[in-house]
Write a structure and sequence with these properties.
This protein has 323 residues and is α+β, with helices and mostly antiparallel strands. Helix content is 60%, strand content 21%. The radius of gyration is 59 Å and the shape is elongated.
Length: 323
């Protein structure tokens, strides 16, 4: 009987100790701040801490979105045609996209700080010597969560502050009302009596210095104007002389530019006149050459006509002589 009671007590102690431990394990998943992160990960074999060959076909780091302690992991798989299935914690992963022999998948993880069990089925195709490779593996994914900040702990601190607010309100209201009423009445009477007599004295005393102040203000303004006029005239004269010199220089530069433009325009006119004269001379030469050629042709034709006519006349003379 004693052994049974001791055994039951030991079991009860172990259960009592295990309850806070499990509570801490579940709370660990909710200590991370919400947000989007990039976490490196390693791929281990199922029964040892050795790295699996599957790591060569998975792109690290992965994209992780934390929300309310749960993580949504997005991973890129290389050689997507080899992957027959990919299951995480007994569930098929969700395919986001697939292109260029790469597949992007995502899956949910309750506690990203713990190892994640997964199952894969790989069939190698397109590589000589490995065409018959068809195997299924159990792997483990371990994520590095050191870059995730902890969740802010501010909510439980504000709760007790709300409870203290209604306690202060009823205490202040009844105390303030009777004190104000009793004190105001005698104060008003005493002030009215005191202020009736000295009012005339204050009004008389105020009028006297106002005249002095206005007179002194006018004097100071006139003195300032007189002082300001003397030094300004010298500097203004110097500035006006310098500005006049600058304006004269600019006008001279403009005149020189206009003269240069006029000279260039005259040169262009003369050049155009010379070109037209040259063109007219060339045209006259061409006309003279045409006239001389026409005259020479006319002389040659006359000579030929005269020779032919002389030959004909000579032939006719011979015929007559024979007869």
């Amino acid at each position: 009987m004693k052994k049974k009671t001791l055994f039951s007590m030991v079991i009860a102690l172990l259960l009592a100790l295990s309850i806070p431990i499990t509570g801490q394990m579940h709370a660990a998943g909710t200590t991370y701040a919400d947000g989007d992160y990039t976490l490196p990960f390693s791929v281990l074999k199922a029964n040892s801490n050795e790295e699996s060959a599957t790591v060569d076909y998975m792109v690290s780091p992965a994209k992780v979105k934390m929300q309310n302690g749960k993580a949504t992991v997005t991973v890129t798989l290389n050689n997507s045609s080899w992957w027959q299935y990919f299951k995480v914690q007994g569930k098929d992963v969700q395919v986001v996209s697939e292109a260029n022999d790469k597949r992007i998948v995502k899956f949910d993880v309750e506690d990203i700080s713990q190892t994640v069990n997964a199952k894969i089925h790989i069939i190698v195709t397109g590589i000589p010597g490995l065409e018959g490779y068809d195997n299924k593996y159990d792997i483990r994914l371990v994520f590095n969560t050191s870059s995730i900040p902890p969740a802010p702990v501010e909510k439980p601190v504000t709760q007790p502050a709300k409870e203290t607010k209604p306690e202060t309100k009823p205490e202040t209201k009844p105390e303030a009302k009777p004190e104000v009423k009793n004190e105001v009445k005698p104060v008003q009477k005493s002030t009215e009596q005191k202020t009736e007599k000295p009012v005339e004295k204050k009004e008389v005393s105020k009028n006297e210095p106002t005249v002095n102040k206005t007179e002194t203000a006018n004097k100071t303004e006139t003195e300032k104007d007189k002082k300001s006029e003397k030094p300004l005239t010298k500097e203004d004269e110097v500035d006006s002389e310098e500005s006049d010199d600058v304006l004269k220089d600019e006008e001279d530069e403009l005149l020189t530019v206009e003269e240069e433009l006029e000279e260039s325009a005259d040169e262009l006119k003369e050049a155009s006149i010379e070109e037209t004269a040259q063109e007219e001379a060339v045209a006259d030469e061409v006309v003279v050459e045409k006239d001389s050629s026409n005259k020479s042709l006319f002389i040659v034709l006359v000579v030929i006509f005269a020779v032919v006519a002389g030959g004909i006349a000579f032939a006719v003379m011979k015929k007559r002589a024979r007869k």
